[in-house]
Amino acid sequence: MPSPHITVRNLNLFYHNAQVLRDVSVSIHALHVTAIIGPSGCGKTSLLKCINRMAELSAAARVSGEILIGGQNIYERSVDVTAVRKRIGLIAQKPTVLPMSIFENVAYGPRIYGAGPKKKLRDTVEKCLRTVGLWDEVHTRPKDPASRLSIGQQQRLCLARGLAVEPEVLLFDEPTSSLDPTSALRIERVITELKTNYTCVVVTHNLAQARRIADHVLFMSDGKLVEHGAADAVFESPRHAQTQAYISDESL
Questions:
Q1: Please, what CATH class does the domain formed by 4-250 belong to?
Q2: Which of 44, 62, 108, 251 is surrounded by the fewest CB atoms within 10 Å?
Q3: Three-state DSSP class for 252?
């Protein structure tokens, strides 16, 4: 049985008086790809933002419950929020490269946290670019502005930038929704390779994508966790009628 890396207990999220997550409890396995599926507005992205404490950047947000990462409750008052966000990277739906070179985009995080000798920084940048399959495409032009890259390349660059600060969990919020099919498949391949070293959680509206990459699936609706389990079991033999209806509708 895989060990849990992330344990969510009785998690609730409110924005003003509106409740967007309702008593969510689930364990997310280490070194697996977990896909979160469900209709728009059901709380998928909100759950991701709670896992790396980005939800509270909104002054209207209020969180209750616990999220344990490696056994530590990241919502304890003594926890350093910056350290949490370093441990848990978030790759957004639309790539946002920094207004600097390809090299400096990846080097940005290590410079903030103490990059060490120049050679170590160069090695880190190369390693991260290789990991996301971008090194061969950009190694001859590291000083070029990152904005010159294609959208698909920019998304992989953003992932490399996230890897450069050595996180242990990677969160992906619909990472391929703005990409062409070829670029999307590249991102999928990278995610499945990353689970060797990282716990990956992917929000996706694409059920075919979830079937391709997920080991475990969470189905959410109206802020609640309706069902979760091994991907094959959820897709082939869902326990709940609501899950079955969603999968059937989305497969049409």
A1: alpha beta
A2: 251
A3: coil
